[in-house]
Amino acid sequence: MSSTKSQDGQDQDDFRILPSEVRIIKETNTDMEIEIVGEGHTFCNALVHVLNTNENIKHASYKIEHPLVSNPVVYLRARDEIAARSKAAVKHVPLTDVKGIGPAKEKQLKEAGIKTANSLLKADLERLSKKVKISKSTLEKYVAAAAGLDFGEESVPRSLLKESLNDMAKIFSSIKKEAS
User: Fold this and answer.
1) Residue stretches of the chain with pLDDT short of 50
2) Alpha-carbon gap, residue 26 to 106, rounded angstroms
3) Same domain, yes or no, for 27 and 79?
C-alpha cells in the first residue's frame, strides 16, 4: 500500500485488491483454471475462501508448485445446475475501453450512473450531456466507439470469479475503513 496526494492535498492510500495479471489456462461452461501472476498464499487463501462461500460455486482451490519459481493456479467449478440453466452472462465492458474515455471522463460518467460501456449504449444522451457537462456530440462519438467493442458472452465461472473479486474488494474496503 502506498500513499499519494489527492487533489485537495490530503494523503490518500492506494489499496490494490485485484491481482496485476491473470492468465486463463482453461475455461469451460462449468470450470475455470487461472494463473495469478505475482501473488502468493495470502491473496489466494482469501480468494478461495470468498469463492467457496458463493453458493453457486461447487468448489474452489489453488496450488503453488514452488513459491519461488511459480505462480499460483486457482481452480474453480460452478455448480452444474447453475451452469446448465444459466446462459453465459453478457460481458461488462469498462468505460476506459471506449476510445476517448480516460480516467477523468470515466469518473464523470460513473458519478452520473454510467458504470460500463454497456450502460453508455443505453443512455439518454440529452439528459446525460446536461448531467455530466459533456457535449452531446462528444457523447455520440463515445457511443459510436462503444458500439464497436466486443460485448461477447462470459462463461459462468468467469462471471462468478468477477462477482467474488468484487466481494473481496468490498470486504477489504470495509476492513480498511475500520482500521482508519
Assistant:
1) 1-15
2) 32
3) yes
- Global confidence as pTM: 0.57
Residue whose C-alpha cell reads 502506498 in the numeric block: 2
Compute the distance between CA of residue 89 and CA of residue 48 in angstroms, rounded to an integer.
22
pLDDT at res. 72: 94
Please report, for the domain that includes residue 141, its CATH number.
Answer: 1.10.150.20
Could you tell me the CA-to-CA distances from 26 to 7, 10, 132, 155 in Å, in that order?
A: 43, 44, 41, 11
DSSP 8-state assignment for residue 39: -
| pLDDT of the residue at 50 | 94
Specify whether 167 is located in the same domain as 113. Answer: no
**CA–CA distances in Å: residue 143 to residues 87, 113, 135, 136, 154:** 26, 15, 12, 10, 22
Q: Specify the pLDDT at position 28.
A: 85
Place of cell 443505453: 122
Q: Give the chain's domain count.
A: 2
